[in-house]
Structure formats: structure tokens, C-alpha cells
Automatic annotation (TrEMBL):
Its main location: cytoplasm. This is Lysine--tRNA ligase. Homodimer. Belongs to the class-II aminoacyl-tRNA synthetase family. Coiled coil: none annotated. Keywords: Aminoacyl-tRNA synthetase, ATP-binding, Cytoplasm, Ligase, Magnesium, Metal-binding, Nucleotide-binding, Protein biosynthesis. Residues 1-20 are annotated as: Disordered. The keyword Signal does not apply. The gene is lysS. HAMAP family: Lys_tRNA_synth_class2 (MF_00252). The lineage of its organism: Bacteria, Bacillati, Actinomycetota, Actinomycetes, Bifidobacteriales.
Length: 552
């Protein structure tokens, strides 16, 4: 108990929000209000008498009147011996299945003897004299009408329905399938029960949710917005498609550590944490690459992982601090073979999730992932844009002068490769609309990539651009431990000079490479970005529960 109190005190101090009340204090206040309402209901007061619309006793930050009324209904259910959150109900049928089976098959007023037990969220209520109508929604948005009549369920049950059921409640209805007099497919109830009492009201379903509501309360967006539900389902279909494609190519899926003693596998600023048991600082994974390559050393020659990565960097329409990454490695492959696999993964995902490689984006325009994809080289396309030849021998000073002349932003820690990539991005990054592989990068920015077979100073790497942003990257992977050590040392020097994205030296990985990793093609692709490419959404719309800054 002492630990809890100390932790609570710390939470209070850390959670001060400028209103004079801490998180713990407000939670306790709301609980006290819940108990006060329940006590009044137990004393026999009417629901309207149990609530305090002006919040005179508990203050303006307590429950609003509508929530108080729902709390009172919950208390009344408990008083009457009705479970507001029952463990089990005899749900034998799903709303979407009932609608699919009977849609268009019944004439207005026609009744069947088929009995179903369904449950869904209440989206509409109309309480009449002896007959009440309720619209129930399944999780996918499919709706059906429930009809509760005095004749069928009895006067007491109908009265209880009118008194207790609110919009947003999860409701169970059992009865015969019929068509109402207006032709609406319905379940004519012989019994009903609240499956889960909603204490918070739903947003106005006839109004579009704000971006703030969608981002901070995605569960409301799933209820109210078909597009949000579709995104969740399409994301699942895309991930399932990727796994099936890998399985068809004999790849094995593995899991690698999220907590790492050395951050590596990508050029990114990591999140740090501390492990009390070992008393060591750790990094949240920025990429699974170095562990997946250890699998190749161990003999798993085709391996992939769909994983959570964490990068302590900026947030915008295509970047999030926590995101889902796909990485795959194929022994005896190259950046050419892994590029072919990547194209197959993307095209098959489009087919499986949307039925075609030609998809319709949120703005209404069509985008085609089919056919062959364009290729271009980084140095060749940059030379064309500048009107002069740029090679790996072009000096840092000359590249810097070009960058300054063009107004290209420069890093504090610069080298040839970074300047080449910054200049290339200035001309091309947001202009490559159709799927395009950009090939053959500077060696300085790709410490885990094999040197190009015929172009000194370059590495066998491609980036895949779609609709003006980078979707995936692929390599002929570096497997020479001596060269890898040299690259790591240069990265460590860059880090010491102030480059926060540079990686550290991973001696265990170098030892693994020393055991022998076969020639390998590897790729990485953001799942969130793949959904952006396929739908036209922003990254926050593709992530089901995006990280948001807490409200003060």
C-alpha cells in the first residue's frame, strides 16, 4: 500500500494540469460522484432526482448531466438485480449474416418463424406507446432494426426498456426475423438485455468527426466513420497478403528484440530507456536488420519480420515515432532479386485488399501499381538535373557550394554522400509520382550495404518512391566483416562529431558476420506507408491508435 501511495503522489505531482486538480484527484472525485448517485438510487429516488445537473457538490470538472443519468441507470439495474455488464448472452447470430440471408427476400409485413439472437450497438431509438424501435449496428457498420412490443415482451419489460436503454448501449435482442410494415428487415423481440451499458454518449452521428476526435478517440471514429473501419480492415488484409506472399516464397517469420544494447540497422535517432534488473541503458529498436542477419548466419536463408520500430524524430504526414516495419532477407539474392520480390509484395497486397492493382485514393483519383516500374540512378539523375556530371569523386566542397547556391538545407555533420542525397531530394524526392526504383547510392550513407560490383564509391541500394514519397528500400547486403567494421568505425566517428542518427559499433554482430553470412538481398518497407500509398491517407489515419501529445 505504501508503494501505491508514493506512486500516486508522484503521479499527482507529475499530472498537474493548471486547473488545481491532479489526475488522481479527479478520478477519485468522479468515483465519489458515481457512489453518491448510486446511493440516491438505492434510497428510492427517481433517476432525475439522483443526478445534479449543475454539479453543485462536485464542481464543473465532474460528470456532465448526461453521464450522470447513465450512471444512475447503471445503479438502478444493479438495484433491480440486472447485470449492466453480463458475462454471457445467447448470441447465436451476427447482424451482418442475418442481413445477408434475408435482405430483399421478405415483403413488407411478412414474418418468418426463424429465431435469431443478435447483439449490436444502439444507434437509433424511437420509443412509442406499445412498440419501440431500435437500430443495432454490427462492428462493420451493418445495421438491423429491433422491435420491442408490449404484446410480445410484456408491459414491465417494455417499461424497463424505455427507462434503461440509451444510444450507444450494447444491446442483445432475441426474436423472429420479419419485415416491418415499411419493409425494414427487423428482429421482433421476445427478449432483450443490455449487453454493456454505455456511460459515455456517442458523438452526433449525423456530423463528421473532427480530426482531433478521430486522432484522440479512434474508437469513436470506428463507430461513427465507415472510412475508419475500412482502414482497419484493409490494413489487416494487406498484412495477411504480405505474409501469404512470403509463405509462397518459403520465407520464415521470426521475432527479434525490441530492447537492444546497441542501436543499429538504420540511420535514425533512437529512444532510450533503462532496465532496472541489469542496471543498464537500452535502446528501443530502430530496425530489426542486424538480428535478422544473424538468422541468415544461423542458416535461416529466407527470413522476414513484421515489427514495431521506434525513432525519436519528427512527426508529419509520412513519419510517426512508433510505426510498423517489414524487413526481409533472402540468401543468395541481390538488390535486383529483392526488388522483384518487393514489387510482387506490393502488387499482390493491392489485389488482395482492393481487388485490383489500380486503386482509388481518398481524393478520388486512381493510381496504378501494375505493370513494370521505372528505374533511375541517383548519380545519373542528379547529373541530369544539375547539367554537370556528379560522381563519387566530386568533392564535398563543390557539392556544398552547389547546395548553398540552391538553398538546400545542410546537416551539421556533412559528407559526400549526405550532400549528394540532399541535392537529389531537392530535385526529385516529392516529384516521383509513379512507382520508381532509385538505384546506386553513395557509400557514406549506407553502412550496411555491399559496394557496387562495377561502380566504385557507390553501393547496391535502391529506394522505391511512390506518389512522391519513399515507400521501401532494398540492398545487396554487406557481409564482409572487415569492411563492416570499417563502416561502423566511420559511423562511430560521425556520432562523436554530433551526428545523432549515426549507429554505434556492434561487436556481437561483427562476430556473427565473422562466422559467415551468405550473399544476401534485403529489403525494408513501412506498413503504414504502404497503406498511405494504397489509400491516399495520412500516416495517422493508417495507424489504428496513433501517438498524440496529451492535452494540458
Amino acid at each position: 500500500m505504501t508503494d501505491f501511495i508514493e506512486h500516486g503522489a508522484q503521479s499527482e505531482e507529475a499530472s498537474e494540469n493548471g486547473t488545481g486538480i491532479s489526475t488522481v484527484e479527479r478520478a477519485q472525485m468522479l468515483l465519489d460522484q458515481d457512489k453518491a448517485i448510486a446511493a440516491k438510487v438505492d434510497q428510492g429516488l427517481e433517476l432525475e432526482e439522483a443526478v445534479d445537473p449543475s454539479n453543485r457538490e462536485f464542481g464543473p470538472r465532474a460528470h456532465p448531466e448526461q453521464v450522470q443519468m447513465r450512471v444512475a441507470k447503471r445503479a438502478l439495474m444493479l438495484k433491480q438485480g440486472i447485470a449492466p455488464y453480463p458475462v454471457h448472452l445467447d448470441v447465436t447470430d451476427r447482424i451482418e449474416h442475418v442481413r445477408a440471408e434475408y435482405e430483399g427476400k421478405l415483403e413488407p409485413g411478412q414474418e418468418t418463424e426463424d429465431v435469431v439472437g443478435i447483439a449490436g450497438r444502439v444507434l437509433f431509438l424511437r420509443n412509442g406507446g406499445g412498440l419501440c424501435f431500435v437500430q443495432l449496428s454490427a462492428g462493420d457498420g451493418t445495421t438491423i432494426q429491433g422491435m420491442i412490443s408490449k404484446k410480445e415482451v410484456g408491459a414491465d419489460s417494455l417499461k424497463s426498456f424505455k427507462q434503461l436503454v440509451d444510444l450507444g448501449d450494447q444491446l442483445y435482442v432475441r426474436g423472429r426475423v420479419i419485415a416491418s410494415k415499411t419493409g425494414e428487415l427487423s428482429v421482433f423481440a421476445t427478449e432483450w438485455a443490455i449487453a454493456a451499458k454505455a456511460l459515455q454518449p456517442l458523438p452526433a452521428l449525423h456530423k463528421e468527426l473532427s480530426d482531433e476526435q478521430r486522432t484522440r478517440k479512434p474508437y469513436l471514429a470506428m463507430i461513427a466513420d465507415e472510412a475508419t473501419r475500412d482502414m482497419v480492415r484493409r490494413r489487416s488484409k494487406v498484412v495477411s497478403s504480405l505474409r501469404r506472399t512470403f509463405e509462397s516464397q518459403d520465407f520464415l517469420e521470426v521475432e527479434t528484440p525490441m530492447l537492444q544494447t546497441v542501436h543499429g540497422g538504420a540511420a535514425a535517432r533512437p529512444f532510450t530507456t533503462h532496465m532496472n534488473a541489469f542496471d543498464i541503458d537500452l535502446f528501443l529498436r530502430i530496425a530489426p536488420e542486424l538480428f535478422l542477419k544473424r538468422c541468415l548466419v544461423g542458416g535461416i536463408e529466407r527470413v522476414f519480420e513484421i515489427n514495431r520500430d521506434f525513432r525519436n524524430e519528427g512527426v508529419d504526414g509520412t513519419h510517426a515515432p512508433e510505426f510498423t516495419m517489414l524487413e526481409a532477407y533472402q540468401a543468395y539474392g541481390t538488390y535486383d532479386t529483392i526488388g522483384d520480390l518487393t514489387k510482387q509484395l506490393v502488387q499482390q497486397a493491392a489485389l488482395d485488399a482492393f481487388g485490383s492493382t489500380k486503386v482509388t485514393l481518398l481524393g478520388g483519383e486512381e493510381y496504378d501499381f501494375g505493370g513494370e516500374w521505372k528505374t533511375m540512378t541517383m548519380y545519373g539523375s542528379l547529373s541530369e538535373a544539375l547539367g554537370e556530371e556528379i560522381t563519387p569523386e566530386t568533392s564535398v566542397e563543390h557539392l556544398g557550394a552547389i547546395a548553398d547556391k540552391l538553398g538546400v538545407e545542410r546537416d551539421e555533420v556533412e559528407n559526400h554522400g549526405k550532400l549528394v542525397e540532399h541535392l537529389w531530394e531537392h530535385f526529385y524526392e516529392d516529384k516521383l509520382y509513379e512507382p520508381t526504383f532509385v538505384r546506386d547510392f553513395p557509400v557514406e550513407t549506407s553502412p550496411l550495404v555491399k559496394a557496387h560490383r562495377s561502380k566504385p564509391g557507390m553501393v547496391e541500394k535502391w529506394d522505391l518512391y511512390v506518389r512522391g514519397f519513399e515507400l521501401a528500400t532494398g540492398y545487396s547486403e554487406l557481409n564482409d566483416p572487415v569492411v563492416q567494421r570499417e563502416r561502423f568505425i566511420q559511423q562511430a566517428k560521425d556520432a562523436a562529431a554530433g551526428d545523432e542518427e549515426a549507429t554505434d559499433i556492434d561487436e556481437d554482430f561483427l562476430e556473427a558476420l565473422g562466422v559467415g553470412m551468405p550473399p544476401t538481398g534485403g529489403m525494408g518497407m513501412g506498413i503504414d506507408r504502404l497503406l498511405i500509398a494504397l489509400t491516399g491517407a495520412t500516416i495517422r489515419e493508417t495507424i489504428t491508435f496513433p501517438l498524440v501529445k496529451p492535452l494540458v
